[in-house]
TrEMBL record:
Source superkingdom: Eukaryota
Gene3D superfamilies hit by this protein: 6.10.140.2220, SET domain, Tetratricopeptide repeat domain
Name under which the protein is recorded: MYND-type domain-containing protein
GO MF term (any one): zinc ion binding
Domain SET, first and last residues per copy: 315-644
Domain MYND-type per the UniProt entry, residue ranges: 359-426, 680-722
GO biological process: methylation; negative regulation of gene expression, epigenetic
Amino acid sequence: MGELDTKAEIELRKLENDGQILFENQNYEEAREKYSALIAATDVEDPHILLKRARCHMNLNDYQSAYADAKHAYKINPKSLEACILCGQASTQILLFEEALNYFNDGLKIDPKNKTITLNLKNLHSKILSDYNEKGKGAETTYSAVKFCTQDPYPGDSDLLNLEYEILAKKYKIPSEDKVNFDAVNKEEAAKHAALAFRLRNQDLSSAIHQCTLALSNEPPNLIYRQLRADMYLEKGDHVKALSDMWAIPKQNRGPDIWKAGGKVLMSLELPISAEFWFRRATKLSKEGDDEAAMLFQQVRVDRLYRPLTAGYPVKVEFKQFGRGVYATEDIKEGDIAFVDSPVVRAMISNPEHKIEACSHCARSLLTAAQYFGDALETMTEEEKELVNIHWPDVTPIYCDDCRRVKYCSDDCRLEAWDLYHQIICPKLNPASSELYDLLDNEGWGIRDDGTKGEIWGGHYSLMILANIWASIIMEAKRLMITDGATTATVTHWAKAKAPYRRFIAYGTTSAISRMPHMLPVFRRVFKNSGHEGVVFNVTEEEFNGRYYQATCNLQEFSARSTPYHAFMKKLSTDLRGFQMIKYLEKSPPYAGFCGMFPLHACLNHSCCNNVEIRDGDCNGTPGVNVVAKRFIKTGEELFTSYIDNKLSRNIRRAWLYKSFNFWCQCPQCTFEGEDKKECTNCNAKSESEKAFPCCSKCKRAWYCSVKCQKEAWRRGHKNICSKQKSGTA
Ligand SMILES: C[S@@+](CC[C@H](N)C(=O)[O-])C[C@H]1O[C@@H](n2cnc3c(N)ncnc32)[C@H](O)[C@@H]1O
């Protein structure tokens, strides 16, 4: 046996040596074959061999395979500098720029001065820039958010519409069906009064309206007179009467302008569903050419959806050129909380380095004394240990009774999670879902359907975000179906169940399925079983892509601000013996990281000179986010967060934002900062010599061809951004 082993070992070593020699002789094809044979022959996955094969792939321009091997090596040993570099290089080639940046940054944590990484980062930036230049700056001004937003009705809107019609009938005496008197038509008499009305319109509006009324009493079905009177009522500011006339014009005869004008009146009467209905018709009839109608539609919709969320905060959500945005309704002082928000869905971020337990439902930290104090706990005196025992809160997790794979901080959380989503993905009830937890435990790796081992989930965030979204949609559809006494979940049930997630926009340039082709079958297996016959949910390709990018665009990291350590400190401060613990309490506690989708926070647009920052904070007693003013924000001003590292140079910032979020940033920082030393930041004149233009002596981020340009730029806005402290989202 021993001899056989040795023989096999010799064979393996020979394969490795041959591979090395072939590689050195630049015969990458054959070297790759040797390494493949070596990998197939060994049970133990060796990151060194994987990296060697990855290098062969790189030289053969097979970047996808190089990335797969390098990532495999990185998974086995995330502390390998080589793996970080190769992962970064391969992902740069396949245009996964964010991944590349993350890998290079990981590498810099291991070796902060690594020259290869510095060079590769330069290469990455120039790749992003060439992408940016290719796509062109022509797109900069053509962006209009309204084109991306649907006008589909929300489930339940038809009931609300009927309610609004009742209000119109009762309060404003506008009947839902027009009851026009078609008897006694005297066209000649009518025409005389109408002619007078036209003549008087610019001199005496009230008399003109009176004449038009006489015309209509002589010829009630005349739609021209009715529209004329509606227009004049609008001019006079008598909106309800104007609406009454517009209402009396049969639907098929209303032109887009009437629908739009009626929508405006309904908007002013605070009847949003009817207003949406009228603006929708105006948009449709104008063949989507009427941007004002489309914009008004979104403004009404946003107001009705977000007003409940902003109640009690000095902010409101409005729809403008860049879509939804958050605006101050009162002055907000520096350091004040503008609003707090809790996630509609959340999941823990996997951090194999320090795994801090937390409640998987509400994100409360379950940090133990052993995790905080480490080895010091062993060496403490008996009295000190006693202090820890008495004052460290009980953080024993409560497991799901059935699967025992999910932890909670309390029975309340366990029960709530069960009711809202967990029973759909509890492995005890739905065995297929154990795959999800296995993938979580293995950072997205597992055995694929074709029997090979490799990465299955390749997202930047926890796959439980998507799992929890779908599970909660299924649970809600099921609940609605049972409440209605139905045996199958209807289209309306599904639409209502999905409604909370319609608030989040999605943007992505590549297909999530092509990025991780092995994941969709797993989700399909898990969600086809809801434990209820009439509730069948198919994770379609569109659903997978859409939700994947919804999460990508809107997720925010957060963690519980108050941890068991803080509770311990508080209790200790009331204990006279507490002082002896001070020496152990210097380091801040480790946090359990979560990511979540927050409905109001997701409306914050980006600026490179952001005026708010996101901090961890409680919302209704559970961990959420606080949106805090970084400086004084005037009433009416928009609140901006930052999506990126603001310290990057202008062109890199803009290229990143374009690539990841599909917009060219036009914030003051981008407007009044230059990127080319030989181009005047103010007038765009190019330097005729090799010499750069003189730069702003303060911030050194703008170049001017003349003192005149410098002064002009300063006045126009450079002074507001010059030397402003740059910071990313906290
Ligand atoms: C998290 S959302 C912010 C809210 C978004 N405006 C909406 O209507 O849902 C991110 C998206 O908002 C838009 N956006 C954010 N900041 C922007 C800016 N400074 N200029 C143009 N569009 C921006 C982009 O479409 C981006 O993909």
